[in-house]
UniProtKB/TrEMBL annotation:
Name of this chain's protein: Putative phosphoethanolamine transferase
A GO molecular-function descriptor: phosphatidylethanolamine:Kdo2-lipid A phosphoethanolamine transferase activity
Occurrences of domain Sulfatase N-terminal (ranges): 2-189
Gene Ontology BP annotations: lipid A biosynthetic process; lipopolysaccharide core region biosynthetic process
Topology of this chain in the membrane: Multi-pass membrane protein
Species for this entry: termite gut metagenome
Location(s) in or outside the cell: Cell membrane
Lineage, top ranks: unclassified sequences, metagenomes, organismal metagenomes
SUPFAM superfamilies reported for this sequence: Alkaline phosphatase-like
Family annotation (InterPro entries): Alkaline_phosphatase_core_sf (IPR017850), PEA_transf_C (IPR058130), PEA_transferase (IPR040423), Sulfatase_N (IPR000917)
GO cellular component terms given for this protein: plasma membrane
Alphabetically ordered keywords of this record: Cell membrane, Membrane, Transferase, Transmembrane, Transmembrane helix
Length: 210
């Protein structure tokens, strides 16, 4: 029931003087949860993640790998860019962990997906290359599905989660376009008239596997 853009969030009095990065969203999650203590509730977070410039995606206390790239492409070595990228990944991991911590005592399910990957070479980084030309690292990205213990108390949810883990172990390829059907399906919604495509629902357990 509300949309807040990064510029709006960072401009609020409580955030003035703070770094403009993804951790500003953590307080928004907390506030949203407090405002909706009961009933069904959906939160969508659009994060910067590890988008270029990598060093701008994390605070100084996450600059673990050195030397890091803090300039433009042609002034950085491949090692420096990878170090900055790895630092941003460390920040993303911590961000996701903080989101999960706010949901551990609730019936909750979390999806996290990167929109694209990156190619890092000497003095350059690339993404968005046309699909027929792009190397695998630009379009094969990790996706995460997490369910809280309370959510898994439902036998159907537990079965769906086990099915998800089996698919991950088998490295079954999945696509962003399947996220709508999967989110709805994992939440237990069905649509016999075709609104939800079970072939795209990662939580759908085939009858023979039940």
């Amino acid at each position: 029931d509300n949309i807040a853009y990064r510029e709006q969030i960072s401009a609020e009095p409580r955030n003035r003087g703070k770094d403009v990065d993804d951790k500003l969203l953590l307080a928004e999650v907390s506030q949203s949860l407090q405002g909706h203590p009961k009933g069904k509730h959906l939160i969508i977070l659009h994060t910067k993640g590890s988008h270029w410039s990598y060093y701008q995606r994390y605070t100084r206390d996450f600059a673990k790998w050195q030397p890091e790239c803090v300039g433009i492409n042609d002034s950085c070595s491949k090692k420096e860019m990878i170090n900055a990228y790895d630092n941003s990944i460390l920040y993303v991991d911590t961000f996701i962990s903080n989101v999960l911590d706010q949901l551990r005592d609730k019936k909750a399910i979390v999806f996290y997906a990167a929109d694209h990957g990156e190619s890092i070479n000497e003095k350059e980084h690339l993404h968005g290359t046309p699909r027929k030309l792009a190397p695998p690292e630009q379009f094969r990205v990790p996706m995460l599905v997490w369910m809280s213990d309370k959510y898994l108390e439902n036998p159907a949810h537990q079965q769906a989660f086990e099915h998800l883990k089996q698919q991950a172990e088998m490295k079954v390829p999945r696509r962003h376009v399947e996220l709508y059907d999967t989110i709805m399906g994992c939440l237990g919604y069905t649509s016999p008239d075709g609104g939800i495509n079970e072939n795209n629902n990662w939580c759908h357990v085939p009858a023979k596997a039940q």
